């Protein structure tokens, strides 16, 4: 029988970094123009030309798990750089999320050299929004058929529609 004082103390679980610690790590990204918190996630805004380099810097700081890449179209803003591109990553060691954000007119350097998991996400952004990723290994349509004209998730896209004639006039529930 061993004494309680003879046992080694249990190792403490690593604590998740505070927002300030995460944003401090993100602050070391060259070219960052803004640092903010969005939904409790440290977010770094970079110019489009620095997007891939900033993604590599995030990976070097321990944010090695790619989670998501998404696009928002701000056509109503009247800005030339109407596309807002988000890259969401996670650090397993720090137990923290970080987001990289950039506004673009429609072209960014690819992040697939750093996060291979972004490959199809970038293809989807290209297919649905028309945002091109320079250096992408296979930037082709992924959801829309080949030969489709336009990018259907753009807010100024004219959706083709076909009028539907409703011919059923009977009450289907009370027959």
Under the CATH scheme, the architecture of the domain at 15-134 is 2-Layer Sandwich
| Text of the CATH class of the domain at 15-134 | Alpha Beta
Give the SSE order as H and E letters: HEEHEEEEHE
CATH superfamily of the domain at 15-134: NADH:ubiquinone oxidoreductase Nqo5 subunit
Please describe what this structure looks like.
Strands 1-2-5-4-3 form a five-stranded mixed beta sheet, with helices on one face. It has a two-stranded parallel ribbon with strand order 6-7. It has helices spanning about 20-25, 50-60, 120-130; strands spanning about 35-40, 40-45, 65-75, 85-90, 95-105, 105-110, 130-135. The longest helix is centred in the C-terminal third of the chain and has 11 residues, at about 120-130. The protein is an alpha/beta fold and about 180 residues long. It has three helices and seven strands. The chain has a domain at about 15-135: Beta Polymerase, domain 2 (2-Layer Sandwich). The mean pLDDT is about 85.
